[in-house]
Amino acid sequence: MSNLPGTIFINYRKDDSRWNALALYNELQKYFDKDQIFKDFNTILPGDDFVFSIENALRKCDVLLVIIGKTWLDIADEKGRRRLDDPDDFVRLEVSTALSRNIQVIPVLFDNVSMPRADDLPENMRMLYRRQFVQIDNTRFEDDVRNLAEAINKVLPDGQVRILPENNDNDVRRRDDEKPIKKKKPSQPKPSNNLVIAIVATVFCLPIGIVGVLAANKVDTLWANEQYNEAINEAKKAKNWSIFAFIAVAIIYIFYAIALAGANM
């Protein structure tokens, strides 16, 4: 657990928003210390009381981001029951506990979904409907996350890592009472990490697309460490593997169409 003032938890359902949560987690590290951001904080050891564990974790939480994708509201368990209707559902427990403690809860909507209505939510989650949401569009991902980071920054306790103005050093994070860190400027602009396109490619072709996701996750870290050539190479690798994934899917569909046409002759 971070000793820094200001802790951000990301609440998400793996079957709904695994890759969106990963992309958001990585992008937020441009604006906050990595130790302030927690994803999968609901990992509970065997034998632990999961209700107590969630409540204990949320005691140290200042902001809870609720990632809502296309299937978040209606996704069902193996018995066909909607997961949100299960009182022991992790997502429901985390969100309802945060709401009851008046923690700053921010719904984060992906994939052009609408904010769930109060009537669609379990009773102990209905206050979520009254929380102002943030919409993140994959076509303007970096800008939308920056706006989210600015909103988070306003509600964190004093002394947290502040968001720097958007300039050539916007990836340098510092406290208010520290002097700006001067970093050697690269000879070319920072490359796109291509994480969004890699995630989309993974949806269509997991084995190939995941290579692109892994490469994309290295770009920002390498760039921040002034390993500029390595960062550029990883960005190209992420883009190339994503293209390979799309090509592989296209070839599969072509062969499928040919086979289907032959079967109908």
Give an overview in words.
The chain has 2 domains: 8-155, Toll/interleukin-1 receptor homology (TIR) domain (Rossmann fold); 195-263. The protein is 43% helix and 8% strand. It has helices spanning 14-28, 50-58, 90-100, 141-155, 195-204, 206-224, 228-263, and strands spanning 8-11, 37-39, 63-68, 104-109, 134-135. α3 links the parallel β3 (63-68) and β4. α6 runs antiparallel to α7.
Radius of gyration: 21 Å
Tally of separate helices: 7
User: Which percent bin holds the helix content?
Assistant: 40-55%
- Average of per-residue pLDDT values: 78
Q: Give the topology string: H per helix, E per strand.
A: EHEHEHEEHHHH
Q: What's the quaternary structure here?
A: single chain
| CATH evolutionary superfamily of the largest domain | Toll/interleukin-1 receptor homology (TIR) domain
Please outline the major beta sheet. Answer: 5 strands, parallel
CATH architecture of the largest domain: 3-Layer(aba) Sandwich
Which fold does the CATH topology of the largest domain refer to?
Rossmann fold
Describe the strand arrangement of the main beta sheet, using strand numbers: 2-1-3-4-5
Briefly note the structural class of the backbone: alpha/beta
Low-confidence stretches: 159-185
| Shape summary | globular
Look at the structure and give the CATH class of the largest domain: Alpha Beta
Spatial separation of the terminal alpha carbons: 64 Å
**Beta content:** 5-15%
Quickly count the domains.
2
